[in-house]
Amino acid sequence: MEKNIIRKAVYLLAFSAALSSCNQKETRILRFLNPLQIDRNNEVVTINCNDLSNKIGDLPKGMLPLFLQGSDTLVSQNIDLNKDGTPEEILVEVSIPAGGYKDIDVMFVPADGFPKFKEKTNLHFALINETGKELDSMNRVQSNQTGVTSKVLQMEGPGWENDKVGFRNYFDLRNGMDIFGKIKPLMVLDTIGIGVYSYHLMSNWGMDILKVSNSLGAGAIGMEKDGKLYRIGDNGESGFERFYEGPLKTEFALHFKNWVAGSDSLDITHYISITSGKYCYESSVFADFPDDSYRLISGFVNKYADSLIFINSLDNHVFLASHSIQSEDKSVLGMALLIPREHFISHAEAPKTGEGITETYYASMQAETKFFFYAGWALGNQEFEKAEGFLNLLKEDALKFDYPIQIQKVKM
Question: What's this model's pTM, rounded to 2 decimal places?
Answer without folding.
Answer: 0.93
